[in-house]
Amino acid sequence: MKKTLQGLMVIALALAGSVFAAETAQEANVRKLVQPTFREGVKIDSVTKTPYSGLFEVRIGSDIMYTDEKAQFLFTGEVIDAKNGTNYTKARIDDLTKVKFSELPLESALKMVKGDGKRVIAVFEDPNCGYCKQFRKTLATMDNITVYTFMYNILAEDSKTKSKNIWCSADRNKAWDEWMLHGKVAPEAAANCNTPNDKIFALGQKLRVTGTPSVFFTDGTRAPGMLDVKTLESRIAAAAGNSKAN
Questions:
Q1: Nearest to 150 by CA among 229, 205, 187
Q2: pLDDT tens-digit profile of 215-246?
Q3: pLDDT at residue 47 above 60?
Q4: Is 165 buried (19+), middle (13-18) or exposed (0-12) by CB count in 10 A?
Q5: In terms of DSSP bridges, do strands 110-114 and 74-75 run parallel, antiparallel, or are they unpaired?
Q6: Largest Cα–Cα distance of the chain, in whole Å?
Q7: Using one digit for the tens of pLDDT, what is the confidence trace for 93-120?
Q8: SS3 178
Q9: Which 3 state secondary structure label does DSSP give 210?
Q10: In the chain, how many H helices and how many E strands?
């Protein structure tokens, strides 16, 4: 009996291995067929068979596209479950773009604490970003929150200068709010004042931050663009729950 069970286990494992190999070969074949669709030099990071409608996920960085098994069609956009509203594409991208919040160089960010500061977010902002200024007004209405702000200079030639002046101010947080909320320019920084500008720019590029504001939550998820209070509150609560679960 024991030998029979062992034999069945071996057969089961062999069958599982052959299925996996077949799927891997199929994915490899789809990759081969779809590669010519892209311009020379574009590297496909992965091709994965999805559980919905026979589609294959084609991933380039954190960009997701879909194709069929013959690579006759290439789909861009979101795959949404018509019955329950689940956005499979968004969930996949959220997973791909997660960061380790604890590894962010928070010492190179401005730190604003309101109330007990228990709820924590990090945000990449450019001093010339109009949407960031609007988002600052949203943050000003919230309580019991800690906001780490990385000054990410990508929008204008003088963004780096403005960030330096603010960083080198006696009260960085006040100088940032004075500029972002009231348009009051920070005093010119001393020539020998060092800033984390280059470090933050490199970090943003590494994390594929392509626009400001971009908000990062404690569970590693992110939200590009300006969020309203209701959405921000919801995302902070969800991130806190996910962090505890993990």
A1: 205
A2: 999 999 999 899 999 999 999 999 988 766 65
A3: yes
A4: buried
A5: unpaired
A6: 85
A7: 888 888 999 999 999 999 999 999 999 9
A8: helix
A9: coil
A10: 7, 9
3-state secondary structure of 97: coil
Q: Which domains does the chain have, with CATH numbers?
A: 2-96 (3.10.450.70), 101-245 (3.40.30.10)
SS3 25: helix
pTM for this model (two decimals): 0.74
**Dihedral class, residue 43 (left if φ above 0, else alpha if ψ from -120 to 50, else beta):** beta
Residues 6 or more apart in contact with residue 180 via CB below 8 angstroms: 125, 127, 132, 133, 136
Separation between Cα atoms, residue 177 and residue 120, nearest integer Å: 18
User: What is the 8-class DSSP label of residue 39?
Assistant: P
Over the stretch 2-32, which tens digit does the pLDDT of each residue have?
A: 444 343 333 333 333 433 344 578 889 999 9
Backbone angles phi, psi at 34, to 5 degrees: -85, -20
What is the token pair recorded at 179? 């500029």
Cβ atoms of 196 and 204 within 8 Å: the answer is no
Cβ–Cβ < 8 Å for 34, 76: no
Q: Are strands 63-67 and 110-114 parallel, antiparallel or unpaired?
A: unpaired
203, 105 contact by CB (below 8 A): yes
